[in-house]
Design a protein that fits this description.
The structure is a single chain. The protein has 193 residues and is mostly beta strands. Helices cover 10% and strands 40% of the residues. It contains 3 helices and 11 strands; from the N terminus they run αβββββαββββββα. It has helices spanning 7-12, 71-76, 180-186, and strands spanning 17-22, 25-32, 37-44, 50-56, 59-65, 87-93, 96-105, 111-118, 139-147, 150-155, 176-177. A 6-stranded mixed β-sheet has the order 1-2-3-4-5-11, with no helix packed on it. Strands 6-7-8-9-10 form a 5-stranded antiparallel β-sheet, with no helix packed on it. A hairpin with a 2-residue loop joins strand 6 (87-93) and strand 7 (96-105). The relative contact order is 0.17.
Length: 193
């Protein structure tokens, strides 16, 4: 839901996100704005290094983060997780037994976060550098979270096992390196001082 969000910004948001994974690598792909905007996000789950490639109207930027577990999620969301308000739960999703987490974010804990993962799909440590939570293993099948000030709901619609080419995990050329605050500014977030 994007109540109060700029309509042009809302058009840029992707309707579909594709995740490709092969241990230890994750690759997220998203396109928006009728092909004007695209995002590629690599996460190396062994080293914790993540690369975010963002292209908007031909401007191509790359942000590399190798600092902290879960930091990309906290970089593009609004507020740190209030760890004392985290609840783990078990559920079933797409026929898979899953482990979920419910938490609150922000200064007053007013924004809800809910993630559901299937531990039978993926590998141990798959989410260690994506989510700021311990004990949440496997493929994310459902998520309710805040992203760039918008409440987002993401849900897997299918899992397709297939052989993946090494080139899928090769860093694309032509992206200009940017710092954290330049990335945050492009995403409409305040800089970190």
């Amino acid at each position: 839901s994007g109540l109060g969000a700029d309509p042009l910004f809302m058009q840029m948001l992707p309707e579909r996100l594709t995740l490709h994974f092969r241990e230890p690598m994750l690759r997220f792909d998203a396109k928006g704005g009728g092909g004007v905007a695209s995002l590629i996000w690599f996460v190396d789950t062994e080293t914790g290094v993540s690369d975010l490639f963002l292209s908007v109207a031909g401007v191509r930027m790359r942000y590399r983060d190798d600092s902290v577990r879960g930091s990309i999620v906290e970089t593009v969301s609004s507020g740190k997780v209030q760890r004392e308000k985290v609840t783990l739960f078990d559920t079933l999703c797409m026929g898979y037994p899953c482990r979920g987490v419910a938490a609150h974010r922000g200064e007053r804990g007013s924004r809800a976060l809910r993630l559901v993962c299937a531990s039978q799909v993926g590998w141990p440590g798959m989410n260690a550098y994506s989510f700021p939570f311990e004990g949440l293993e496997g493929l994310l099948l459902h998520g309710d979270f805040e992203l760039v000030g918008l409440q987002v709901c993401a849900e897997a619609d299918r899992i397709v096992p297939q052989q993946l080419s090494d080139t899928l995990f090769t860093i694309p050329a032509g992206y200009r390196p940017v710092g954290l605050n330049a990335l945050r500014e492009l995403l409409g977030l305040d800089p970190i001082h």
